Amino acid sequence: MSIEVNQLTKRYGEQVAVNSISFEVRKGEIIGFLGPNGAGKSTTMKILTCFIPPTEGSAKVCGFDIGENSIEVRKRVGYLPEHNPLYLEMFVKEYLRFAADLGGVKKPKARVQEVIELTGLVREQHKKLKQLSKGYRQRVGLAQAIIHDPEVLILDEPTSGLDPNQVVEMRDLIRQLGKEKTIMISTHIMQEVEAICDRVIIIDKGNIVANDTLDNLRNKDNASFAVRIQFGSAISEQDLKQISGVTQVLKTGENQWRIEGNIPELRQNVSHFALANNYEVLELASEKNSLEDVFRKLTGNVGNI
Amino acid sequence: MWVIYKKEIRSFLSSLTAYIVMIVFLMITGLFMWVLGGNTVFDLGLSSMSVMFNIAPYVFIFLVSAVTMRSFSEEKRLGTLETLSTRPISDLGVILGKYFANITLVVFALIPTLIYYFSINELGDPKGNIDTGAMWGSYFGLVLLGAAYTAIGLFSSAITENQIVALILSMLLCLTSYVLLGMLGDIKWLESIGKSIDWFGLDYHYYSLSRGVLDTRDVVYFLGFSAMFIWLTKLVYESRKW
């Protein structure tokens, strides 16, 4: 086990940030740590990286207790904090060298060069950190996290604030690193989880509400099916609700509807309904039940994302 | 610890802080020693550096506070404290690295003033008539004093992420420990315990050293003073864990 969390609780005064959560991450897994803002993702990550101690409970990283063997844990963990703090006055190479020295890297010079190449910083390596764009700063943040070749990477919202190209590049990098390392990334972007994670842990208000693989989550009973349809003429909502299996009907535009239901045959049923009543159908498409829906259901924020 | 030390020294050099501190210190002590204030070497006609050693503690209050104010405040503000304290290095290692880097700066600020020593040595009548022992004692005292100020400065900086607050707090604490305690000891109705209050002041031990007698009690006092503030700094630094 790379990470073992056992009934971890963190309270800030009266407020409970993390409420007795337990989970495990196997070696080599890429875990998506999902939740709305303020759910306790960052707090959990700060505890696992030994920045703050838990109020109750315990956690082990690579077999070492975060409280008793904090230094051993830190040797094996690479951490990219949420806002990617950097010494802006430093040069890229200088900063990575500093990180390498702190991490006890044997051949720091060679390792810095290696990491610069790995994270695609070759062209920027002689610049000062404050001259770098957000995307490159994020790469430097990732570079400093992997410089001491840690077994576990903890990345707190690694793609936030990046432009779409940079997001894709960042994800590629993370996926590439995931071949050798255990990675835990927090995010509130579903596509990210779909793109890179093996398993997802959803946390809401300090509690774990789901801990499963992506496919299982989608196909669980909380899953739903949706159909997008556009008719050639006006249809009453009441009629649509009569279709078997329909649970919800939403008007999305002029003669456009989103029909949600709880049976896989929803699309056929809708189609039969249109044919039977001789309605003109301009468009009909099945909407894959997305993780977003699952997420909204589990975190109780339906229609409010 | 030495990794932090190296990084701090580099940042002193690259941010011009080091040069400014050296120049300002040399300039102010030089002005008072040779030109301004009616207490110059020429006015007094003494071949002694006491003018500099009297003014230096006050200049240091300002300079050391100004240099140390960013030590932790800036890391807090930038958030780099989070990356720093999740690396395999102890909290004390971080603090001591910064502490020794700042002391190094103090020492380097003092080195150029050796010119004054050689000048006075040459000007003396007869030549070379200067109390070398007292001078080395004073230099030693100044380094220890600088170390004590540094510890105060680090503590102030650890408390807040606002550098100005850190600066003012540090200057206040330095001033209190250097002069105000001594002044307190002079108050009439505190006469009975005046001596003991004096003893707690930094100036008492500084002047004791500047006589050129290396009294271990003074050295131990200075080291203890620094250690106390380092310990307080560690306490504040770890307060995130409360």
Structural category of chain B:
mainly alpha
Name given to the CATH architecture of the largest domain in chain A: 3-Layer(aba) Sandwich
Overall outline of chain B: globular
Number of domains of chain A: 2
Q: Percent helix among the residues of chain B?
A: over 70%
What's the Cα radius of gyration of chain A? Answer: 24 Å
Say which CATH homologous superfamily of the largest domain in chain A is assigned.
P-loop containing nucleotide triphosphate hydrolases
Structurally, the number of domains of chain B stands at 1
CATH topology of the largest domain in chain A: Rossmann fold
Number of strands of chain B: 0
Number of strands of chain A: 14
The low-pLDDT segments of chain A are: none
Q: How far apart are the first and last residues' alpha carbons of chain B, in Å?
A: 24 Å
What would your notes on this structure say?
The complex is a heterodimer of chains A (305) and B (242). Chain A has 305 residues and is of the alpha/beta class. Chain A has two domains: 3-219, 3-Layer(aba) Sandwich (Rossmann fold), CATH 3.40.50.300; 225-288, Alpha-Beta Plaits, CATH 3.30.70.100. Chain A is 33% helix and 30% strand. Chain A contains eleven helices and 14 strands. Chain A has helices at 41-48, 70-76, 92-102, 108-118, 134-146, 164-177, 190-196, 214-219, 237-241, 266-276, 291-298, and strands spanning 3-12, 15-25, 30-34, 56-61, 64-65, 77-80, 152-156, 182-187, 199-204, 207-213, 225-231, 246-253, 256-261, 281-287. In chain A, the strands form three sheets. Chain A has a six-stranded mixed beta sheet with strand order 6-7-8-3-9-10, sandwiched between helices. A four-stranded antiparallel beta sheet of chain A has the order 2-1-4-5, covered by helices on one side. With 242 residues, chain B is mostly helical. Chain B has one domain (2-241). Helix content of chain B is 79%, strand content 0%. Chain B has helices at 2-14, 17-34, 41-44, 50-68, 70-78, 80-84, 91-110, 114-123, 132-159, 163-186, 191-200, 202-210, 216-237. In chain B, helix 2 packs across helix 7, helix 4 (50-68) runs parallel beside helix 9 and helix 9 (132-159) runs parallel beside helix 13. The longest helix of chain B is centred in the middle third of the chain and has 28 residues, at 132-159. Chain B is globular, with a radius of gyration of 19 Å. The mean pLDDT of chain B is 87. Chain A binds chain B through residues 46, 49-53, 71-72, 74-75, 77, 79, 81, 83, 85-90, 94, 98-99, 101-104, 144, 148, and chain B through 3-4, 6-7, 10-11, 14-15, 78-90, 240-241.
